[in-house]
Every structure is written in structure tokens, then in C-alpha cells.
């Protein structure tokens, strides 16, 4: 059964960990740079065969590191996916199974209004292990429309600049400049650093810049040119950060990971190109310019098929992680990042903290793994019956265990089963041929449901709520 974290014990362990680790220097611990894109599809990289998108800097990471093809995030949408990274838990444990929106929407969907700062948190564990910690870019563990939500600084960051949060919104294109300044500052202080660089691209609105539109001026399709230009701009900013690591001779002691919070967004049908305004990031082009691809995976953003949760995961750590390698077998999840990063950092975890993920240090260092002792679970708020315009967005529950992936609608009256190791593109439903496997996996989901809270709890509700959660 899932055990709630005891704040008292957690604090005690954090104090002990801080005493043990605070004297470590940057030379003794690896720096960690986690680049988390927003709606970046598996196929939206030139190193993954995209026909016109150019990503030379991310391609460089793949050339100098390992490209893991079986990485999955914990949701098909933003906020729960990011919750899993921060906590090492399936986001359903916090009743976060959709994106944070207006307070009435959160309340209607039985969600909190923000991730609790009292949850077990990756940046806080690393901070107490002697790391300088920072977050630059998208937040969305609350929302800019919830003014009384905690700021990112309440979650264990020494510095931050963010949007989709309370307070001042950082301009989306200033993420790399802030990250570079923090790297330089940490280097001068001789402290190892952990940076979440959570870039906006390629989420709508698409904020184009003339320099990058000019690169793709010969393209006949205006939406395709817009999409290529914003990805090119993001790739250049990533390159600026990588060049900083080179300039400061930090490359060999820095783990860099590039990934995405979910698969690419696509309109349900033909959509005219038009401008859109977002309260956090401003004006830009809307969903008509969303041209992301999944590399053949089924479904897109908001789906629990592989197109929605199977995203890029490229890891580079020179001399430690193999260069120019593709790993098509190792099953890695976003809930693994917290235990993995904490092991690398020598960060002690609270005694009563039980992550849903496992450390993948050995996997990163070249020991492939295809099995897990415990299943991976997903929960989403999805429509039923299946909608013709969105045929992959009906799944409310999913599980991956051993070679199998089972997907179920909200009341488990419709089931699909795939041998995910031999059929990663989910082309052949084998549920009828394997009734005992279906029965077993449905029981696993039912048992997992029993560990989940019925409603959110704690100080996670805005004053804007029309009534208290208990009413």
C-alpha cells in the first residue's frame, strides 16, 4: 500500500542529509541539467528522422550520449507529467490527472489547485544534498490564473524564473540566459548545480521570431514553417547552454537530459491558422500551426497510447554514458528520475518515502533493463464513448507490466492489450487471445486504485474556491 510521507520524519532525514552532503564540491558530484520540453513529439527531432525540422544541438546530445527509445512520461498532459518528475510518484497519488486550470475547473475535476510544497520534492532533496538548485521556464504545477498559489521558490529552488505560475511571468525566450547565468554563478561558488530547464516549445501559442522564420522562408506551408521555426529557436537556446558548459569546462561532469512532458498537440480536425493569446506567455500562433509527429506511435497529446506518453529521452554524460548509442529495450519512466538523480547526487531520501520509480543509474551507465519489479500505472480523465475526431483519447486507465500494456476506459468495459515489447506501435490488440493476462492486469489496476486518495487533501486549495472541498 502507498504510504503518505511524514513531514516530521522527512525533515529529520533532510537535516541529516544536509549535514553529510553540504561540504561536497562541484568536482565531487555531477551537475544535472534536465531539459523538459512542452509537447515535443518523439519524431520532432532531425536525429529521429524529421523531414524538415532541424535540431543540431539536440542531435549533438544524441551523438555524444545515448538515445533511449522506451522512455515514457506519467501522463499524456502537462501538470501530472511534471508532478511525477518532481515527486517520483504517479500523479494520481495527488489527484492530479489533468492540467491545472481555472479554480472552478480544478474543483469540478476533483483536483487540487497546486502541487503541495509539502510533497516529497526532487529539488529539495538535491538542495539539502549541497546542490545549487534552479528552475527556469514553464511551471504549471499551479497556474498564473491562481494568484494565491505557492511560488516555485517554495519547492526547493534557490532561484527561479517561470511562467504558468503565480507572480511575475518570465518571458518564454529568457530561459537559456537565466540558466547560463546560474551555471556561471554556481561554478564561481564551486557548487554542483541542478537546473530544471523547462522550455515552452512547441506548446501553443507559437511565439515566432523573425530570425527563425527566415530560416524556413522557402517552405510552401506557412504552418509547417512556423512549427519548424519555434523548434529551431528552442534548439539554438539549448545549444547556448551546452556551449556554456564547454566554455567553463563543465561538460564532462554534467549529466544533461533532454525530454518532453508528453506527445505533440494536434487539432482534432482541419484548423485555420490564427493568432491566440495566452495569459502566461502572450500572443502567438494557435493550434493550426501544430504539426508535431510521433515517429509512428499511435495517438498524440492527451492520449495514453504511446504517441501521447512515449517521448524523446536523450542522456549525455561524457565518459559515463555511452556515446552515439541507441537503447531500444530499457524501460524507463518519468517516476524514475527522482531516485536516479538522488542516487547520482548522493542525496539521502526520507526513511518513510516510497517512490513509485526506481533508480536507473545502472541503465544510464550501460546496463540495459527490460523488466521492472512493479508495474507502471496511468490515470487520466478521458471521454467515453470513443469520439470519431479523437479516436485515441478514450483511455482512463493504463498499466505496463512485463511485456504487456493494457488500456481501459473509465469503467473497464472496453479493453485493449498489446505486447508492448514486440509491438511498440500498438498495432495489434491481443486481448481476446490472452484473457488471463487481461484479468491479471485489470486486477492490478483495481488494487492500485485502492491505494489512491478519493479527493485532494492538505493546503492545496485556492481562496478563490466557491465552497470548501468538504462541502
Features:
471 residues, alpha/beta, Arylsulfatase, C-terminal domain, 12 helices, 27% helix
What does this structure look like?
Helices cover 27% and strands 15% of the residues. The protein is of the alpha/beta class. Strand 15 and strand 16 (415-419) form a beta hairpin. Helix 6 (175-188) runs parallel beside helix 8. Mean pLDDT is 93; it is low at 1-24.
Within the CATH hierarchy, at the fold level, what is the topology of the largest domain?
Alkaline Phosphatase, subunit A
Helical content, roughly?
25-40%
Structural class: alpha/beta
Determine the strand fraction and express it as a percent band: 15-25%
In short:
The protein is built from twelve helices and 16 strands. With 471 residues, the chain is α/β, with parallel strands linked by helices.
Which helices and strands appear, and what pairs or packs with what?
Elements: H1 7-21, E1 31-37, H2 56-64, E2 66-68, E3 71-72, H3 78-87, H4 103-108, H5 122-128, E4 132-138, E5 159-163, H6 175-188, E6 193-198, H7 210-215, H8 222-247, E7 254-260, E8 275-278, E9 282-285, H9 306-309, E10 313-316, E11 325-327, E12 332-333, H10 337-345, H11 361-364, E13 376-379, E14 397-401, E15 404-408, E16 415-419, H12 435-449
Parallel strand pairs: 1-6, 1-7, 2-11, 3-12, 4-5, 4-6
Antiparallel strand pairs: 2-10, 7-10, 8-9, 13-14, 14-15, 15-16
Amino acid at each position: 500500500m502507498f504510504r503518505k510521507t511524514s513531514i516530521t520524519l522527512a525533515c529529520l532525514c533532510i537535516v541529516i542529509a544536509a549535514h553529510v552532503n553540504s561540504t561536497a564540491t562541484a568536482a565531487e558530484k555531477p551537475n544535472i541539467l534536465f531539459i523538459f520540453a512542452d509537447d515535443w513529439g518523439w519524431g520532432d527531432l532531425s536525429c529521429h528522422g524529421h523531414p524538415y525540422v532541424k535540431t543540431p544541438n539536440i542531435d549533438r546530445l544524441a551523438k555524444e550520449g545515448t538515445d533511449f527509445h522506451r522512455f515514457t512520461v506519467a501522463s499524456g498532459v502537462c501538470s501530472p507529467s511534471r508532478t511525477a518528475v518532481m515527486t517520483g510518484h504517479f500523479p494520481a497519488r495527488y489527484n492530479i490527472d489533468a492540467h491545472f486550470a481555472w479554480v472552478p475547473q480544478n474543483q469540478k475535476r476533483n483536483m487540487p489547485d497546486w502541487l503541495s510544497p509539502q510533497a516529497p520534492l526532487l529539488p529539495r532533496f538535491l538542495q539539502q544534498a549541497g546542490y545549487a538548485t534552479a528552475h527556469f521556464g514553464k511551471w504549471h504545477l499551479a497556474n498564473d490564473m491562481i494568484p494565491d498559489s505557492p511560488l516555485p521558490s517554495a519547492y526547493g529552488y534557490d532561484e527561479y524564473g517561470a511562467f504558468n505560475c503565480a507572480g511575475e511571468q518570465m518571458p518564454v525566450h529568457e530561459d537559456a540566459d537565466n540558466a547560463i547565468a546560474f551555471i556561471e554563478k554556481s561554478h564561481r561558488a564551486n557548487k554542483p548545480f541542478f537546473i530544471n530547464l523547462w522550455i515552452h516549445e512547441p506548446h501553443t501559442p507559437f511565439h515566432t521570431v523573425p530570425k527563425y522564420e527566415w530560416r524556413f522562408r522557402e517552405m510552401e506551408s506557412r504552418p509547417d514553417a512556423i512549427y519548424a521555426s519555434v523548434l529551431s529557436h528552442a534548439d539554438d537556446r539549448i545549444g547556448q547552454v551546452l556551449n556554456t558548459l564547454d566554455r567553463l569546462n563543465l561538460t564532462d561532469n554534467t549529466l544533461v537530459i533532454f525530454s518532453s512532458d508528453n506527445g505533440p498537440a494536434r487539432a482534432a480536425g482541419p484548423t485555420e491558422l490564427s493568432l491566440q493569446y495566452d495569459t502566461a506567455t502572450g500572443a502567438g500562433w494557435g493550434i493550426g500551426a501544430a504539426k508535431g509527429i510521433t515517429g509512428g506511435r499511435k495517438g498524440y497529446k492527451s492520449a495514453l497510447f504511446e504517441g501521447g506518453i512515449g517521448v524523446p529521452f536523450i542522456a549525455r554524460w561524457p565518459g559515463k554514458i555511452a556515446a552515439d548509442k541507441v537503447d531500444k529495450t530499457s524501460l524507463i519512466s518519468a517516476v524514475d528520475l527522482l531516485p536516479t538523480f538522488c542516487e547520482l547526487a548522493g542525496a539521502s531520501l526520507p526513511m518513510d518515502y516510497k517512490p513509485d520509480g526506481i533508480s536507473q543509474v545502472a541503465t544510464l551507465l550501460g546496463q540495459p533493463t527490460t523488466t521492472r519489479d512493479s508495474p507502471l500505472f496511468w490515470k487520466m480523465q478521458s471521454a467515453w464513448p470513443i469520439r470519431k475526431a479523437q479516436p485515441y483519447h478514450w483511455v482512463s486507465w493504463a498499466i505496463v507490466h512485463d511485456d504487456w500494456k493494457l488500456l481501459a476506459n473509465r469503467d473497464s468495459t472496453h479493453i485493449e492489450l498489446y505486447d508492448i515489447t514486440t509491438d511498440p506501435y500498438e498495432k495489434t490488440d491481443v486481448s481476446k487471445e490472452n484473457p488471463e493476462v487481461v484479468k491479471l492486469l485489470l486486477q492490478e489496476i483495481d488494487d492500485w486504485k485502492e491505494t489512491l486518495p478519493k479527493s485532494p487533501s492538505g493546503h492545496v486549495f485556492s481562496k478563490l474556491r466557491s465552497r470548501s472541498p468538504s462541502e
